[in-house]
Amino acid sequence: MPPRPFHHLPDGTFRNPKGAPKRSLGRLKHAGPFFLEMLKMGVRKVDIPEGHVVPRADAVRVLDEHVEAPGDFLTWLGHAAFLIRIGGLNVLTDPYLTTYAGPAGLGPRRFVKCGIPMSELPRIDLLIVSHNHYDHLDERALARLPNKSHMTVVVPLRLASFFHERGFPNVVELDWHQSHKIKGVTVTALPVVHWSRRTGLDTNRTLWAGFALESKDHKLFFGGDSGYASVFKEIGEQYGPFDTALLGIGAYEPRAMMKASHANPEEAVQMGLDLKARRVVGMHWGTVLLTVEPPFEPPERFLKAGAEKGFAPNDVWIMSIGETRRLKGWPSNE
């Protein structure tokens, strides 16, 4: 019998890869003020900068043009939800698309709507979910997704039953470093630094993951949720280089509490370098208030760090919610 992988614990739960920072709530001096500030933020109005959201009619029109044309593209729906065209497949990631990041109308509330109405999305061929937190696995959105029997769902270990129970017949569970091929696109689950919980009694009983999507023309890394650790250099050595890396840049303060769950913008840029990514795209920001940093600070720090680390300006993307960009040829790179 092969040895048990490091991230599989004897009690059936999972843990982060070697070298990852330890997760904790932090000392009371951090936790108390954090939860008090989050209560205040729950009723605070967010001032949304001009250009952060594409008007829906314009967003739908541009998406329709890309759907009808050949070529790969990326549409940001908000947070970690993207519509990706790669290798001819329509891929939907971490579909938090409705209002609340929590059960039964509880939890943090989005301050911007989903970039494209669900009714205007093209038929989804592949649904990828990185882990079971409510801001990535939105049960209300899943209930409204059409064509469940058509799409393939790829999830980390022990999440398949959640989807089977909700009418998705074609579900593939992957452990880290396992792959599944669908119509010329290879999906590989990869280690990231995070955790899982859906209720108060199931902490780390389902796995979390990032994913590599590889077609003959493009290799894309979707980071899900992750803190920074040396595992990204290992992924870059084994699976890189990547053409595009979608990386979380928000929900990082206070660092004592969030370091083992979410990268800050500078760490996200370093992830991109470690992954040998030509282009980095900031996500997991500008949609819902989960932590206490200013909501529009992440993109400024991300762009600055990208320039300082040597990325070309056109290869550090901060997208508007609802915006669609070509993955080749935007604006002039081939």
UniProtKB/TrEMBL annotation:
Q: InterPro entries attached here?
A: Metallo-B-lactamas, NAPE-PLD, RibonucZ/Hydroxyglut_hydro
| Coiled-coil zones | none
Q: Does the keyword Hydrolase apply?
A: yes
The record's keywords, sorted A to Z, are: Hydrolase
- Quick one: where's region Disordered? 1-23
Q: Which GO terms describe its cellular component?
A: cytoplasm
Q: What Gene3D superfamilies does the record tag this protein with?
A: Ribonuclease Z/Hydroxyacylglutathione hydrolase-like
SUPFAM superfamilies of this UniProt entry? Answer: Metallo-hydrolase/oxidoreductase
Any one GO molecular function term: zinc ion binding
* Record keyword Hydrolase present: yes
Q: Which parts of the sequence belong to the Metallo-beta-lactamase domain?
A: 90-285
**Pfam families, per database record:** Lactamase_B_2
Show the PANTHER family listed in the entry.
METALLO-BETA-LACTAMASE DOMAIN-CONTAINING PROTEIN, N-ACYL-PHOSPHATIDYLETHANOLAMINE-HYDROLYZING PHOSPHOLIPASE D
Q: What is this protein called?
A: Hydrolase
What is the taxonomic lineage of the source species? Answer: Bacteria, Pseudomonadati, Pseudomonadota, Alphaproteobacteria, Hyphomicrobiales
